[in-house]
Design a protein that fits this description.
Blueprint (H helix, E strand, L loop, with lengths): L1 E2 L8 E5 L2 E5 L8 E2 L7 H4 L6 E2 L11 E4 L9 E2 L5 H20 L15 E3 L11 E4 L11 E9 L19 E8 L8 E2 L11 E2 H12 L38 H10 L10 E6 L21 E7 L5 E7 L14 E7 L5 E6 L11 H4 L30 E4 L2
Parallel strand pairs: 2-10, 6-8, 6-9, 7-12, 9-11, 12-13
Antiparallel strand pairs: 1-10, 2-3, 4-5, 10-11, 14-17, 15-16, 15-18, 18-19
Bound molecules: zinc ion.
The site of zinc ion has 7 residues, from helix 3.
């Protein structure tokens, strides 16, 4: 979700099957889900290690429709072309460009062919838990608390074989079954403008920047604490847009390297040879007595924002949330482990760790933190040996450079 800059709070809504949760994250982070190991291993995979939410990327697997129902009095979506058809075409082009921003990142399995042709639907309430990915501009929702400009509701499969409505049956744990993007239709102070209409409407929010951010959620991203990232939780100021407009030459131009790295991790392309660098380690306190005593078993710093910086250019390449590892059959171990993968080879990196105590706090990435554990309290009948409790995010430690080349 995206909030206006003046206010912050937490409501990028992600849904882990029947259970609502708010979602957020710092350097790239993903919506995580623990497979339902109460089910037979052939549908759960048998492991309580978290799986990142993701779409399938086979040809035309990602099929969005958008509702042509638009708020008209006053108009919420401003276009340059004022004719009914011209206006719809202009909005559709913004949606297409926003999808293209993500599908044109090199080194991933998400490609333009993964995206099915965009379709239209007329009903204003087309967003719902129906197994169809939809974009709605005129559908009210309880998640529109003050300051929320747009949000995305994602439902992820925690076992193979489940489905929503008429949608496809999940073939993978972590598969996104439904992702719906909602734009605030009912705040008289909030309007959105297409790229063509933005210059003449400097009080409007940039539709394309917000769409691209929300589609990042629909692809499985939580939030990023990297301020230049598309997945930073706060929208660009009215009349401005995030980074650079997409162009034919560089359709992914609006993204930061943090977004690109995250996408390469989430949609790993096994044939790629360029982004195969990996840096891993553990963040441990100098004084182990500073670790929390509850829940038991915490042996490292949890929730550090770990950032990789290109040692030559000083550019932030990726940030992620450190603090845990997991090996089948799980559960997660809170041992301070971090890993930053999909880094370009033949570069040197510096790694920093900082507490998540800036404008992007733990609540902004809660859908990357809260779902790391399931237990008998969250899920009756959960097997004790695969249960865990997520510790508090450690906000007390001092920022540090972890290594240099
Ligand atoms: Zn968001």
């Amino acid at each position: 979700m995206r909030k206006s800059l003046q206010q912050f709070a937490a409501v990028c809504v992600t849904l882990l099957f029947t259970l609502w949760s708010s979602t957020f994250a710092y350097g790239y982070a993903f919506n995580e889900i623990v497979p339902d190991v109460r089910q037979p291993a052939n549908v759960s995979g048998g492991s309580a290690c978290p799986v990142a939410s993701h779409q399938l990327t086979s040809p035309a697997a990602i099929a969005f429709r958008w509702s042509t129902a638009l708020g008209t009095n006053p108009a919420t979506i401003l276009t340059q072309n004022q004719t009914p058809n011209g206006s719809l075409n202009e909005i559709e082009q913004a949606i297409q460009q926003s999808l293209g921003v993500w599908s044109n990142v090199s080194g991933t399995t998400l490609t333009p062919s993964s995206i099915a042709p965009l379709t239209r639907v007329t009903a204003s309430n087309s967003c719902g838990s129906d197994g169809i990915d939809s974009i709605c501009f005129d559908q009210p929702d309880m998640a529109f608390t003050p300051g929320v400009l747009a949000f995305t509701r994602v439902i992820t499969a925690d076992q193979i074989g489940i489905q929503l409505g008429s949608g496809p049956s999940a073939t993978q744990v972590g598969q996104i079954l439904d992702a719906d993007v909602y734009f605030n239709p009912s705040d008289s102070m909030v309007t959105f403008a297409t790229p063509a209409a933005l210059p003449a409407n400097p009080k409007a929010y940039d539709l394309e920047s917000l769409l691209t951010h929300e589609l990042g959620h629909a692809l499985g991203f939580s939030h990023s604490a990297v301020w230049s990232a598309m997945m930073y939780p706060f929208a660009p100021a009215p009349g401005t847009y995030t980074n650079t407009r997409p162009t034919t030459q560089q359709p992914d131009a609006p993204l930061s390297d943090d977004d690109r790295t995250g996408l390469r991790v989430l949609y790993h392309n096994p044939t790629d040879t360029q982004f195969v660098g990996s840096i891993q380690g553990r963040i441990l306190p100098a004084n182990p007595l500073s670790l929390p005593v509850s829940p038991p078993g915490v042996t490292g710093v949890f929730g550090a924002h770990v950032v990789a910086v290109d040692a030559t250019t000083g550019a932030v390449v990726a940030g992620t949330l450190g603090g845990w590892s997991c090996q089948a059959p799980g559960p997660v171990q809170f041992d301070g482990t971090y890993a930053i993968n999909a880094l370009a080879v033949n570069h040197s990196y510096k790694i920093y760790a900082e507490p998540l105590n800036g404008t992007v706090g733990p609540s902004a990435v809660s859908n990357a933190i809260v779902p790391l554990c399931r237990n008998a309290t969250t899920d009756p009948g959960w097997p004790p040996l695969q249960a865990c409790v997520v510790p508090q995010t450690d906000l007390e430690f001092t920022a540090a450079e972890l290594s240099s080349p």
